[in-house]
Structures are given as C-alpha cells and as structure tokens.
Amino acid sequence: MNIHEYQAKEILKGFGVRVQEGILAETPEQAVQAAQKLKQDFNSDWVVVKAQIHAGGRGKGGGVKLAKNHDEVQQRATDIIGMQLVTPQTGAEGKKVHKILVAQDVYYPGESEIKEFYVSVLLDRAKGRNIIMYSTEGGMDIEEVAEKTPHLIFKEEVDPKAGLQGFQARKIAFNLGLSGPAHKEMVKFISALYKAYDTIDASLFEINPVLKTSDDKILAVDAKVNFDENALYRHADYAALRDVLEEDPTEVEAGASNLNYVKLDGNVGCMVNGAGLAMATMDIIKIAGGEPANFLDVGGTANAETVKAGFNIILKDPNVKAILINIFGGIVRCDRVAQGVIDAYNEIGDIPVPIIVRLQGTNAAEAKKLIDDSGLKVYSAILLKEAAELVTKVLKG
Ligand code: GDP
Ligand code: MN
C-alpha cells in the first residue's frame, strides 16, 4: 500500500527523522495560511507548493513549485489544486491533484554547499535481508544513475536479527562524502530511518532527495513509503492512511467484493478461481488468438454473488469481446457455480458479449447440462481445449 508524501513525512517525524516541514492544504486560502504559519514556526520566507499524488516525478510535471511571497503561494496553489498532473510515473492521462503540501524552502543559500543524496530502504528477497541503497547522485532519476553511473550507487545489507549497526551508518555517511556535523547528522538520519522502516513493516522507503542544507542539517525533502500489505493487520492506524482516490476505481470495487482483479489491455475477459489457473487461462486465451483483458481471481468461493460482481467488473471494460469463465470445482461444486453464472446472467440482464464457461471437477457434467439447458447465450465446455476453440470461434464472430 502506497501513501502520500505528507503522510509519510508525518510517520518519519515520529521516529525522529528530520523532514522538510510542511502543512497540508486543500484550497489556495489554506495554502496562504500555511505559508504564514511556516514563517512563524520556522522563519521560512519562501515555500514550495507540492502536489500530493501517489506518483513520483512531480517536479518534472510541474507539480512542485517555489513561491516567494503570498501572492505567489496563492497563484501556485490555484494552478496546482485540481490540475491533471502528468509525470513520468502517472501514464499519459495523469492524476488529479486534490491536496497540496505547502512546505518550508530548505534550499536556502549559505556558505557551505547544499547537497542532494538518494537513500532508500528495501527488502532483498533473494538475500532475505533489508538493504539500504544510497547515492551521492540525489534529486534525479535513480534509474538513470543506475544505468549511466552504477558505481555511484552503494548498498548496505542489514542483518534483520542484529539490526542496523553503528559502524554501518557511519560507513554510509562516510561514503556520501560527509564529515563533521553533517556526518553526525547523517548517522542519526540513517539510524532513525532504518528504525522506522523496520517498525512499521514497510516494504519500501525511498527518500529522494535527502538534503544537506547549507547549515549542515540532513533532512528528507521527499518521502515515498510503501507498506507490506500482509503486515497491515498489525497497524490499523496506518491502514487508515489508504487513499482510494489514488487507486484504479475498478480495482477498488473488486477488492471490496474480495476479488483479485488487475486490468489488462486485451479483448477476452476472464474469471477464474486460483492464481495459477488464472495464469494458465491467460495463456489459453493467447493460444486461442485473443489477448486477456484482465486477471480476475474470484478465490475459493465462486457463488452467484462473486460471479455477478466479477461480470459487472469485466463488463465495465469496453474492449471486452468475450468472457471466459474457467473454474475448477474442488471444494466448490461445479453445478453450484453453473447456477451462480445463470443467476448472475439473469439478474444483470442482457450481457452484450458471448460467454464461455468451462467447469471441471466435482459435478462437471451436471454443470454443463445446467448451462446447456438454460437457454442463455452461454457456451459450455469441460475440456480446456474445447474452451479455447470456443474462444477462437466467438472472436471470429
Ligand atoms: P518529485 O519530483 O515527485 O520527486 O518531488 P520532490 O519532493 O523530490 O521535489 C522535486 C524537486 O523539487 C526536488 O528535487 C528539488 O529540486 C525541488 N524542491 C523540493 N523542495 C524544495 C525547496 O524547499 N526549495 C527549492 N528551491 N526546491 C525544492
Ligand atoms: Mn523526489
């Protein structure tokens, strides 16, 4: 699960990670008030107005703007709130901005140099260890750094039992070229960051940039935090940070019906029980000359309700030319599923595309008979080969 920058910074602060301070706003008026408060609390004359969407690269898309006075704050906020922000990570349609973070300007000039670093914490599944990945090349596209100057990306492995050791944090600060107070600050920053990652059961932290200010403070200018969804039950307060406005609406609806749905670009919708069977079915669709329009796993309990919810979701996709239902009846009997399909069909009414149902397992023959006798525009099959041939046939018209 992904969250917004402002939420991520709130969590990091709770663990003693220094962040670029900011205040959330939903209107230009609130943005101006936020700027006034930042002036009071942090003596920040300039502020940055930052679009809050679940995607990076906001700066490149015009979603992060410096404002030097209240008129500019008002103007930037007016421009950014409500805009359809397109970044390298949103896809061409972009994402609508509902909220902005008005943040203190931390790039203020001074005698010593300002520096931008990259720091992330993630799980290396192959090694079974957490990794702190870091680079002197912060503020830019890390994929580009990895491609062009891979020697500038460092990795530190952390033993999950022992946790991050002091010498490791000092090595990181050293490799980032820091000495004196900035070195100390970085050691504190890395230690607190790792503690936060570990405690909240995150699957990814990406802080780009981490900034060394002109007065040698180390702070998170940006914060991307992903939670491990399998551990969210341990953190009810974090689960509440979910913003469904940022997620694909069809996928949210599917999740609410306990369906595991991922939209794809093809023309044959499929409804299956079990992820393995779903993959096999997608292969079958390809072999039959179609392209899967989705991945949809109805799970262990394929009944009229889940089948109906699945139909409704698949039918929202205008590219769908046929639907293939491929259910293995083990615990769930095939005739029950067949009845579910028939009930759902009758309830939804006129389904505009042909449906092919392949039921195999307990009571498969009874199920086929139910479908064949239903008088509906549903083709039935028992063997996968028959189902594939039917898909080919209906696609050809
Ligand atoms: P992203 O584009 O979505 O990764 O958003 P970031 O939070 O990383 O901000 C993008 C860029 O905006 C940063 O790399 C900085 O160059 C710039 N930026 C962020 N905060 C400030 C600030 O306080 N002052 C100035 N001058 N620039 C900032
Ligand atoms: Mn960033």
UniProtKB/TrEMBL annotation:
Binds 1 Mg(2+) ion per subunit. Residues 9-236 form the ATP-grasp domain. InterPro entries: ATP-grasp, ATP-grasp_succ-CoA_synth-type, ATP_grasp_subdomain_1, Succ-CoA_synthase_bsu_CS, SUCC_ACL_C, Succ_CoA_ligase-like_bsu, Succinyl-CoA_synth-like. Mg(2+) binds at residues 208, 222. Pfam families: ATP-grasp_2, Ligase_CoA. Belongs to the succinate/malate CoA ligase beta subunit family. This is Succinate--CoA ligase [ADP-forming] subunit beta. It comes from Sphingobacterium deserti. The lineage of its organism: Bacteria, Pseudomonadati, Bacteroidota, Sphingobacteriia, Sphingobacteriales.
